[in-house]
Amino acid sequence: MYKVLIADGMESSAVESLKSLGFEVVEQHFEPEVLGEELKNYDVLVVRSATKVRQPIIDKAAESGRLKLIIRGGVGVDNIDVAYAEEKGIKVTNTPNASSISVAELALAHMFSVSRFVNISNVTMRQGKWEKKKYEGMELYEKTLGLIGFGRIAKELAKRAEALGMKVLYTNRRGKIDGFDQYEYCELKDLLKKSDFISLHVPFDKTKGALIGKEEFSMMKDGVYLINCARGGVVDEAALLEALNSGKVAGAGIDVYAEEPTKNVELVNYPKVSVTPHIGGSTIEAQTRIGEEIVNIIKEFFK
Looking at 87, 131, 139, 259, which residue is catalytic? Predict the structure, then answer.
């Protein structure tokens, strides 16, 4: 019987589906110092973003030769040393389709939140304040949204932004993409200069560091809004705070952080920032789809 470790939780119906297919399923989170040793007894590891699967863990797991598959439930695999795992004969995959709509909707929610002061007015009203005159917001209609990265999530956000009457620009490492001529492709520097709202949809490359820092903020329009529901580290948090203080950035919506849980109290409490605790894929629908996709991946792998 193949044995599956669910390290960061999974939708209950998906767990039951695996069990009905004959897999032995264990739902337990292990700390890094013991995870590798535990994995000697498993054929499959399923993680979300909490568990980091780095070289020492892979080395220890590979000693038994049993672990053959690691699945990241969600978009991206930057919490796994993919190339190293595959060198050891361990396949790594993810569920890129399952949470695209959920993350796109959260990015849009943050856009509304910071442009209409939903975030801070929620706080001040609970403090007994009625600051109606202070919260003159801005419509999304006829504004320009710049998408940095144009994968599944960015495409879902682009559709919704277009429906709201926004002009959509995008930049992408593979260049212009066929079939999306309703949106304007441009280089990163031009996108930064033209956009009223900028939303990030790229992985974090630890060898390159932050994609958006002081230099990139200096290229942006005064009063720009920045949204990051992609990965912590993609935006230099210190540079973002500086841009907020100077007024270069009018507001920011942040779901991901350089360190999670974040200790950046200044950013979390900043009045012009809308914050959420990495909940981009945390919807009932996304969790169901992620679970179903994981079950199908495991079923196909061992058939």
Answer: 259
Tokens of 220: 């942006």
Closest CA to 180 of 150, 201, 204: 150
Q: What 8-state DSSP symbol labels residue 180?
A: -
Closest CA to 187 of 162, 169, 200: 169
- Domain boundaries defined on the chain: 3-96+284-301, 100-275
278 is catalytic: yes
User: Is 126 part of the annotated catalytic residue set?
Assistant: no
Catalytic residue among 105, 231, 237, 293: 231
**DSSP percent split of the chain into helix, strand, coil, nearest 5:** 40, 20, 45
* Confidence (pTM): 0.89
Q: Does domain 100-275 have CATH number 3.40.30.10?
A: no
Measure the CA–CA gap between 229 and 152, rounded to whole angstroms. 13
Q: Which of 72, 278, 289, 293 is catalytic?
A: 278
Active-site residue 231, yes or no? yes
Contact status, residue 148 vs residue 199, Cβ threshold 8 Å: yes
Taking only the tens place, the pLDDT of each residue in 153-185 is: 999 999 999 999 999 999 999 999 999 999 999
| 3-96+284-301 matches 100-275 in fold | yes
- Burial of residue 283, with CB atoms counted within 10 A of its CB: 0-12 exposed, 13-18 middle, 19 or more buried: middle
**Residue 109 structure tokens:** 């929610």
Looking at residue 176, its pLDDT comes to 96
Candidates 3.40.50.11540, 3.40.50.300, 3.90.1640.10, 3.40.50.720; correct CATH number of 3-96+284-301? Answer: 3.40.50.720
